[in-house]
Amino acid sequence: MASTSGLERGKWLLVVLLAGQFMANIDTAIVNTAGPSIKSSLGASDGQVDLVVSGYIVAHAVLLVTGARLGGTYGYQRVFLWGLAGFTVTSLMCGLAQGPEQLIVARLLQGSAGALMVPQVLSGIQLHFQGPARRRALGLFAVSLSGGAITGQVLGGLLIHADLLGSGWRSIFLINLPIGAVLLLAGLRVLPRETPKERRPLDGRGVGLLTIALLLSIGPLVLGRELGWPAWIWVCVLCAAAAAIWFVRTEKRLATSGGHPLVNLRMAAFPPLRWALAAHGLTSASYLALLFVLAHYLQEGLDRSPAYSGMVMVPWVAAFGVGGLLAGRVPERLVRYVPAGSCSLLAVSYIAVALTVWSGPGDGPLLLAALALGGLGLGLSSNALIGHMTEAVDSRWATDLSGVITTNGQLAGAAGVAAFGSLYASWAPAGDRAGAVDAFAGTAALFAVLALLGACAALSATRALARLGPFAPAGDPLVRDPDSTRAQS
Q1: Residue-range definition of the domain harbouring residue 140
Q2: What is the CB neighbour count within 10 angstroms for residue 19?
């Protein structure tokens, strides 16, 4: 039976970790409402505004696996605090940027700092919580994601509208300074100071190849439409594919020789995890793209204010938190049906959004109801899929798994913002309300297709886990007790 002091320590440890996730999630959502204001204030182009949003996500995605591995090497507590300090400093840099180029660089650095901090949250949950306690912690993790998104959407619009001390959009970044300072002091006091028993060397070549592959694949998606898809864009895409192939071969060779690759490809290729990652990526791509496209649709297409644009997504993100809590309370006999069912619910919501926009005023109560349904579906699916993945992989691979999950979601989100942001911009003529309505409705219909594909992948994931059981390959260098493992077919 856990002691009272142990329960108290676990509670505050979770509070600090989730507060860090909360702050990082604010900065993923808050910039969506600020995009048009940044564009007019700094004289930024559409592509530069896209990079302010997706550049943060790309830098985050590129370094998440590295951040997770550093947590396994130096202790998740220490790396969490490093990332938190860096995130606070780079938020100041964003708030002081004098041009779009400076802001893009500051956002890249901010995303990199977040990549150190965020993977440690899931690592801490997986290492310190088991069984029902872990499911409850993951439910609260979903609430932190939802709360950060709500705060980002609402606070972004309100701060820009308030124009505190003439700061305009800059206040959305400067607000992180007091939050980061308080959280850093709390983390120093609450997080346990533990040293990992085994320090694995960082796979520098893997880091370099993965970084090159991701940057050369996402960058062209962001800039291609605005530049007219020149030949060098496609050269970058081919180079990204080559770097990805080289990365996979390097990781396999390192694992075969007994080393410690950046990504455990055997784990990532394990069918229950592979299908769950596919479902998680598809739903994440649709959600982050929706945040970006909806803000431009409301502000530029319908001429609504940033505050209004931020408030519209409140039903979605509030329902997301509710869905996360409900997922932790599903009866055991029904747990296996939640991932596919919730992805299907998300698809239904996107169809409802498309029909509502096509047939109505485009921004009324029916749209809010459709968005709330989508938030519920995404909250259920996100929590259920992450829970599925932590059950499919033993806690000894906690740092590897947390890096893979968070990288997968962020990379899919960056690709979604780049691809669907470009698609919406090409479909929505400037100053044409009817064109904006059609463009947004068509984009929402495509989101429904992604969610349905996610439902199919989620169903495959649950069936594979029932057939194969948890990942525990014999002979893996991370297995401490070979007698306690079994080979997977």
Answers
A1: 8-192+262-472
A2: 20
